[in-house]
Amino acid sequence: YVYFNNTDNWSTVNIYVWSSTDSNYMSWPGVAMESIGNNTYRFELPDGVDYAIFNDGSKQTGDLKIPDVNMIYSNGQWSKYSE
Questions:
Q1: Which of the listed CATH numbers 3.40.50.720, 3.20.20.140, 2.60.40.10, 1.20.1250.20 matches domain 2-80?
Q2: FRET partner for 42 with CA separation of 20 to 30 A, picked from 21, 31, 61, 64?
Q3: What is the pTM of this model?
Q4: What is the pLDDT of residue 20?
Q5: Radius of gyration in angstroms for the set of CA atoms belonging to the chain, rounded to a whole number
Q6: What is d(CA 29, CA 32) in angstroms, rounded to the nearest whole number?
Q7: Residues 5 and 77: beta-carbon distance below 8 Å
Q8: CA 27 → CA 18, 41, 43, 73, distances in Å?
Q9: Could you count the other beta carbons within 10 Å of the beta carbon of residue 31?
Q10: Contact present, 61 and 55 (Cβ < 8 Å)
Q11: pLDDT per residue as tens digits for the range 12-68
């Protein structure tokens, strides 16, 4: 999984993912992430994916290199996720 802390309180949290070798994983704006409480969302990464954009359909992060699985993106940076 990869996680996102919705610090901007977006009403919808989507994730758009791709890999450096295949950009055809999904169409924009991606898929809705699963809410797991505390304004945190998660998405199960397909094999080979290494980039993501978190968005609400209009506002978005930049292109983000996913450093590893079980990482959370919060306040502009990645860190290890722990429940």
A1: 2.60.40.10
A2: 21
A3: 0.93
A4: 85
A5: 12
A6: 9
A7: no
A8: 10, 20, 16, 21
A9: 13
A10: yes
A11: 999 999 998 877 778 999 999 999 999 999 999 998 899 999 999 999 999 999 999
Map tokens 């797991």 to a residue.
Answer: 36
- Supply φ then ψ for residue 34, to 5 degrees: -85, 125
Token pair recorded at residue 29 = 């704006």
Q: Residue 74 has which token pair? A: 């919060």
